[in-house]
Design goal:
The structure is a single chain. By secondary structure, this protein is an alpha/beta fold. It is built from eleven helices and twelve strands. The model is unreliable at about 1-5 (pLDDT under 50). The radius of gyration is 23 Å and the shape is globular. It has helices spanning about 5-10, 30-40, 65-75, 95-110, 150-160, 175-185, 190-205, 255-270, 275-280, 330-335, 345-355, and strands at about 15-20, 40-50, 85-90, 115-120, 140, 215-225, 230-235, 245, 245-250, 280-285, 295-305, 320-330. Strands 6, 7, 8, 9, 10, 11 and 12 form a seven-stranded mixed beta sheet that branches.
């Protein structure tokens, strides 16, 4: 491996080039961008997005798995790892400023106020909006390498059970993307996500002939009692075995609050009378991130309900719930980001902050 001489590094325009992606999985298009960034900067900071999320067909691999794959593939590609920094970035669906601040804080661990920083990226579509989120950083534009798209790769991976080797770095190390993916295809976790992929494909096919793409309306209940949050474990796809807020689709003939209370009782047996609502319903919020559900455009109406009693009410899993439990809200926020369905962790974090649920 040949390292750049110190004088060559000094001639570079930037101290750091920031490359943001989900890397699900890492592929030769990403490698192309990193090589290009290293031509312009002394070091490349790779920010792995959607870190600490529950596994899904969009985000199957953990931050730790992706970090290991990237480092192994870069080493196999003769990249000087001393010029590579890797950091995680969480999703902040309902707090864009929070996401920007976290990304900047990750970079500022290494860069000081006098550092010259650029962000690497190709402005391909709306998903590239983040390139304009950091006006203090310059932009290093790159072409989309052979139109490679990790989404297309995952379709073949989960639908056709095919590894498209054209995407992957030739690397025989067990921690590299190729070997990791080959091993993963032999696991029960892979088969579960293949089943989920089929479910979502069939679900979308059921309304593909509609004159307009439908917008689905759901309800969720965020129920708190004595600093504990009520959660259900899902029995079926999507999100089978993941934890979630009690909820479901709104019926045609009911109001939002009625849907919230109905789904809550159907899944947990916890019944709240309509006359109790003025004292227990603290707030209602709408959560409408376009990518919040893989099933399509799903907008949910959340009811924040607090129960006054000290004793946690008895609950029993029913309907779509495999299990139900009360969990300390602190523990949910600190330990459960990678086992909550869809955007439910982001919802809980948003509501906790806005309504100061932890004091």
């Amino acid at each position: 491996m040949v390292s750049l001489k110190q004088e060559e590094l000094k001639r570079m325009k930037y101290d750091y080039a920031v490359f943001i992606g989900r890397f699900q999985p890492f592929h030769v298009g990403h490698l192309h961008n990193i090589r290009y960034g290293l031509l312009h900067a002394e070091k490349v900071i790779i920010l792995i997005g959607s870190a600490f999320r529950a596994p899904s067909i969009k985000n199957p691999f953990s931050y730790e798995d992706r970090r290991a794959m990237i480092l192994s593939d870069l080493k196999a590609s003769d990249i000087d790892l001393e010029r590579i920094i890797i950091e995680p970035v969480s999703d902040w669906f309902y707090n864009e400023a929070g996401w920007r601040n976290e990304a900047q804080e990750r970079v500022e661990k290494y860069a000081d106020k006098d550092s010259h920083i650029a962000i690497i990226g190709h402005q391909k579509d709306a998903s590239s909006y983040y390139l304009k989120c950091f006006p203090a950083w310059q932009h290093i534009d790159v072409t989309n390498f052979d139109d490679f798209n990790a989404t297309d790769f995952r379709v073949k991976f989960f639908k056709d059970h095919v590894l498209d080797s054209d995407y992957l770095i030739d690397n025989e190390d067990d921690k590299g993307s190729l070997k990791t993916l080959q091993s993963y295809m032999q696991t029960a976790s892979y088969q579960a996500l293949c089943d989920e992929f089929d479910y979502i494909e069939n679900y979308k096919a059921s309304w593909q002939d509609a004159p307009f793409k439908p917008v689905f309306v759901t309800t969720d209940a965020m129920v708190l009692c004595n600093k504990h949050l009520l959660l259900i474990q899902r029995k079926q796809a999507p999100g089978k075995n993941l934890w979630a807020l009690p909820g479901g689709f709104l019926d045609q003939d009911e109001r939002i609050i009625d849907g919230i209370l109905r789904e809550l009782e159907e899944e947990t047996t916890l019944s709240i009378l309509s006359e109790e609502i003025p004292q227990t319903l603290i707030a209602q919020e709408v959560f409408d991130h376009p990518d919040r559900s893989l099933r399509g455009r799903v907008i949910t109406h959340l009811g924040l309900i607090t129960l006054p009693q000290k004793e946690l009410p008895q609950v029993t899993a029913q309907d779509d719930a495999k299990a139900v439990k009360w969990v300390k809200l602190d523990d949910v926020l600190e330990k459960m980001s990678d086992c909550l369905m869809d955007d439910h962790y982001q919802i809980i974090k948003f509501m906790t902050s806005k309504y100061k649920l932890i004091t």
